[in-house]
């Protein structure tokens, strides 16, 4: 199904702001990606329900993206519908020791809201440049903390457009995994159980982490964060650096000279350039260390 066929189906439906043949390079932190047949920016839960049910009725493939911080879209783009949840779906509220945030809320912003309200437990999220929805889907983590440690429940839209609440146990969390990675559902919002904490102490800890990131990670260049998962008992960046790959360039992409587990867009990189570097890293690290690195970044679309 192409963009013209999608226009025929959706042109009379209120599903939010819609664009066709939209370059995904505008919607990823890597600044890379071919066109999506149709990109939708919804602003209401009813939009999400109608999108899910219409796609199911017409057998249209669809996927959800947030801020595009853990996403590599291939150069051929994405067929079907891309639903973007970002600032358009970003309400947050605090009640007692619980924080509830919509799926498009920046995870960093949600964490900072908790800290300002004297609630601890989400400080680890200040180093994760994605959305709350993305964090739930992949059990995002940093600094020894993970989403599953504090999540109570998530409201999701099912394929048929119905809304359901999944408890922590229902999501079957594992390292950088939840059941949402295997089935097409849309996270609407998530609720976290936090504990009273000292705002000043939490802010001091977060400032220390931020300063370290600024000196050890190439934050000034387009990137997706960590490209590979950390193997057990070691770090992907260390293995890549020990393999002599830092600074390696293919096309417009480069393995960062600052951090081995970052690939940066230095000169209008294509997804093919990044994929070639990923393959080079996997082959080299396996040959030298006997370890196969698994990408943490989500790779979607067509060549």
UniProtKB/TrEMBL annotation:
Per the entry, which co-factors are needed?
FAD
> Example GO biological process term?
regulation of cell shape
Instruction: Quote the pathway field.
Output: Cell wall biogenesis; peptidoglycan biosynthesis
State if Nucleus is listed as a keyword. Answer: no
Q: Which GO terms describe its cellular component?
A: cytosol
| Reactions it catalyzes | UDP-N-acetyl-alpha-D-muramate + NADP(+) = UDP-N-acetyl-3-O-(1-carboxyvinyl)-alpha-D-glucosamine + NADPH + H(+)
Q: Which residues are responsible for catalysis?
A: 176, 226, 296
InterPro entries linked: FAD-bd_PCMH, FAD-bd_PCMH-like_sf, FAD-bd_PCMH_sub1, FAD-bd_PCMH_sub2, MurB, MurB_C, MurB_C_sf, Oxid_FAD_bind_N
- Chief localisation class: cytoplasm
Its EC number is 1.3.1.98
GO terms assigned for molecular function: FAD binding; UDP-N-acetylmuramate dehydrogenase activity
Q: What class of enzyme is it?
A: oxidoreductase
Q: Which UniProt keywords apply?
A: Cell cycle, Cell division, Cell shape, Cell wall biogenesis/degradation, Cytoplasm, FAD, Flavoprotein, NADP, Oxidoreductase, Peptidoglycan synthesis
What PANTHER family is this protein classified in? UDP-N-ACETYLENOLPYRUVOYLGLUCOSAMINE REDUCTASE
Which family is this sequence assigned to? Answer: Belongs to the MurB family.
Quote the protein name from its UniProt record. UDP-N-acetylenolpyruvoylglucosamine reductase
The source organism is Effusibacillus dendaii
Q: Which gene encodes it?
A: murB
């Amino acid at each position: 199904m192409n963009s013209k066929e999608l226009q025929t189906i959706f042109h009379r439906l209120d599903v939010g702001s819609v664009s066709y043949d939209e370059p995904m390079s505008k919607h990823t932190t890597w600044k890379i990606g071919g066109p999506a047949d149709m990109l939708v920016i919804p602003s209401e839960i009813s939009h999400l329900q109608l999108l899910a049910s219409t796609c199911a009725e017409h057998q249209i493939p669809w996927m959800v993206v947030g801020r595009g911080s853990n996403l590599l879209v291939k150069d051929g783009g994405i067929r079907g519908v891309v639903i973007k949840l970002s600032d358009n779906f970003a309400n947050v509220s605090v009640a007692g020791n619980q924080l509830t945030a919509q799926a498009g809320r920046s995870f960093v912003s949600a964490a900072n809201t908790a800290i300002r309200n004297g609630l601890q437990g989400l400080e680890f999220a200040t180093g994760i440049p994605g959305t709350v929805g993305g964090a739930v889907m992949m059990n995002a983590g940093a600094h020894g903390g993970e989403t599953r440690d504090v999540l109570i429940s998530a409201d999701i839209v099912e394929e048929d457009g119905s809304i359901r609440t999944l408890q922590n146990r229902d999501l079957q969390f594992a390292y950088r995994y939840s059941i949402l990675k295997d089935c097409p559902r849309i996270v609407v919002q998530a609720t976290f159980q936090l504990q009273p904490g000292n705002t000043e102490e939490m802010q001091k800890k977060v400032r220390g982490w931020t300063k370290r990131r600024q000196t050890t990670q190439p934050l000034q260049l387009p990137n997706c964060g960590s490209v590979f998962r950390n193997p057990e008992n070691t770090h992907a960046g260390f293995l890549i650096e020990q393999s002599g790959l830092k600074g390696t360039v293919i096309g417009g992409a480069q393995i960062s000279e600052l951090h081995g587990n970052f690939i940066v867009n230095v000169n209008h990189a294509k997804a093919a350039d990044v994929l070639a570097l990923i393959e080079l890293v996997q082959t080299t690290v396996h040959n030298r260390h006997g370890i196969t690195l698994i990408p943490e970044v989500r790779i979607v679309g067509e060549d």
